[in-house]
Specification:
Elements: H1 6-15, E1 20-22, E2 25-36, E3 41-47, H2 57-67, E4 73-81, E5 87-90, H3 94-103, E6 111-115, E7 118-121, H4 122-125
Parallel strand pairs: 4-6
Antiparallel strand pairs: 1-2, 2-3, 2-4, 4-5, 6-7
Organism: Streptomyces johnsoniae
Family: Belongs to the cytidine and deoxycytidylate deaminase family.
Protein name: Cytidine deaminase
C-alpha cells in the first residue's frame, strides 16, 4: 500500500463536504475520511439533529468502513470549512475517540491527522483507556 499523506486525506475529506441547512440544523458541514490498514478509503459527513440523535463525520466514515467489512483504521481526519472558505482540520471529539478504539483494539495505533504536518496516535489522544485495576 502506498503511504497516504496528510494532504491526500485532508483533500479527500474536503471533497465530500456539503453543508446543507435543514430547518435549524446543518448537515454535512464536517466531513471525515479514513484509510484502512488494507488500503480502503471511506468517507462520511456529520448529521446534526435534535435530541442527540445525530452523529459525527467520523462515525459515518467508520460505518462505511464496517459495511465494507473492514475494522482497522490506519489514518483518519475530519475537516470543516468556515464561512470565509478556510479549511480546518478538527480533532475527534471524545465520543469519536472512544468509538474508534472500540471498533478494533488495534485502532489505538491509528494515526489521527491534526493538521497538514501534525498527527498523533489515538492512544496519545485517549489516555487512561484501559480498564482500571481493582482497588483491593
Amino acid at each position: 500500500m502506498t503511504a497516504t499523506t496528510n494532504d491526500d486525506l485532508i483533500a479527500a475529506a474536503a471533497a465530500v463536504l456539503n453543508p446543507r441547512p435543514v430547518g435549524d440544523r446543518l448537515f454535512g458541514d464536517v466531513a471525515a475520511t479514513l484509510v484502512t490498514e488494507a488500503g480502503g478509503f471511506h468517507s462520511g459527513v456529520c448529521i446534526d439533529t435534535g435530541s442527540g440523535t445525530g452523529f459525527c463525520a467520523e462515525h459515518a466514515a467508520i460505518a462505511a468502513m464496517v459495511t465494507a467489512r473492514e475494522y482497522r483504521i490506519a489514518k483518519i481526519v475530519a475537516v470543516w470549512r468556515n464561512e470565509n472558505g478556510a479549511l480546518h482540520v478538527l480533532p475527534p471529539c471524545g465520543r469519536c475517540r472512544e468509538f474508534i478504539r472500540q471498533i478494533d483494539p488495534a485502532n489505538l495505533h491509528t494515526e489521527v491527522v491534526l493538521g497538514r504536518n501534525v498527527s498523533a496516535k489515538l492512544a496519545e489522544l485517549l489516555p487512561a483507556h484501559e480498564w482500571p485495576s481493582p482497588l483491593d
